[in-house]
Amino acid sequence: MNGRERVLAALNHQPVDRPPVWFMRQAGRHLPEYRALAEQADFWERCKNLDLCTTITVQPIERYPQLDAAIVFSDILTPLPALGYDVEYGGGIRITPFNFDDVEAWPEFEARTHAPWAADALAALPDVLPRDVARLGFAGCPWTVGLYLIAGGTGDKEFVNTRAKVHADPEAAMRLFMRLGDIVGNLLADQVVHGGAHAVQLFDTWAGLLDEPTYRRFALPATARAIEVFRQRCPKRTPLIHYAKASGHLHGAIMELDIDALSLDWRDNLRAYREAHGERLALQGNLDPTFMHGSPEAAVSAAETVLEAAGDAPGYIFNLGHGFAPSARIECVEAVLRTVEGQ
To answer: How distant, in Å, are the alpha carbons of 48, 56, 118, 136, 144 from that of 52?
Structure first.
């Protein structure tokens, strides 16, 4: 099987010759070839310039022959400039001030016009990929994108003041999150309809900050709206993976969403999830990414534990429980990939 066949088979609960594997944040950060490009072009140029974006997306595929998917190089905040907000990266994220009343003046968002770069790169990938791998698109869930927008970036630790603003004006906050749901669904659909993505992933990095009632009040309806828009705009069903860090207490609610796969972080019990939910949902994960920073031997042992917990039944994709950090060691990545390949 090639990588594309392997990933799609796993997402559709079909047998595979070995577990498919890709890594969150595989495009960039820990790769010296990425850092070399990053010294020459700022983050927005890397996202918007088609040649740079496709080059960065392909870099891990060229370095690691076992990878089965290329996830497009982009960011969850790319829709914000079209809504009137400057987003600056470097030493954290800075976003121009937001007010809940702004939402009424937002333009009607259309990804083809306002944020086409990820879809354009996905469409260009077949001409530059060295082998047949799955092409993955992604976007951020409305809750997480909304927190960054309200906070003005990354300065509010655990978004304490930001969440207080949400609770202080819940109706206005819900208007924001639901409007972001429309935008996120539109953006994801463009990555499939124009970009040709074989599957997509939603990231809700900060959902885990919420208890379940609050998640059901603010985050779940907006994510459901994003998925609804995505499904309506795509001509055929495209697999959708959901990832939310530190959200095990929310998985009962998350699994009510119209998703095809649940990506687990390293604190989740993969074996228990496979036994309880593996026939209904594909599961992805969940190697602790810190093992990519130490010895290859420790990384291999940890990967073997994950693979044993996953078992041999269809419907599993090997991944990290969170994305690479910049200090991840290539030797550890290579050792883990050889371990997965040997299954």
So the answer is: 8, 6, 12, 17, 26
Task: Indicate the SS3 state at residue 246.
Answer: coil
**Residue-wise DSSP of 182-226:** HHHHHHHHHHHHTT--SEEEEE-TTGGGS-HHHIIIIIHHHHHHH
CA gap 219, 123 in Å, rounded:
31
CA distance 284 to 10: 10
Q: Report d(CA 223, CA 164) in Å as an integer.
A: 21
Q: Are strands 199-203 and 134-140 parallel, antiparallel or unpaired?
A: parallel
The neighbouring-strand residues paired with 89 are 93
Whether pTM exceeds 0.70? yes
User: What is the C-alpha to C-alpha distance for residues 267 and 286, in angstroms, rounded to an integer?
Assistant: 8
Reduced to 3 states, what is the DSSP secondary structure of residue 158?
A: helix
**Whether residue 28 has pLDDT greater than 90:** no
User: Could you state, in order of their start, the residue ranges of all structural domains in the chain?
Assistant: 3-341
What would the mean pLDDT of 236-244 be, rounded to a whole number?
A: 98
Mean pLDDT of the chain: 97
Q: pLDDT confidence of 29, banded at 50, 70, 90?
A: confident
pLDDT 10s digits, 133-173 = 999 999 999 999 999 999 999 999 999 999 999 999 999 99
Nearest to 210 by CA among 248, 263, 257, 266: 248
Pairing of strands 87-89, 93-95: antiparallel
- Rounded to an integer, what distance in angstroms lies between the CA atom of residue 140 and that of residue 203? 5
| Architecture field, domain 3-341 | Alpha-Beta Barrel (3.20)
Question: Is residue 159 within 8 Å of residue 206, measured between CB atoms?
Answer: yes
The 10 Å Cβ neighbour count of residue 300 is 17
Helices 270-277 and 296-310, axial angle in degrees (round to 10):
20
Distance CA 196, CA 189 (A): 10
- 241: three-class secondary structure by DSSP: strand
Residue 153 is encoded by which pair of tokens? Answer: 């970036």
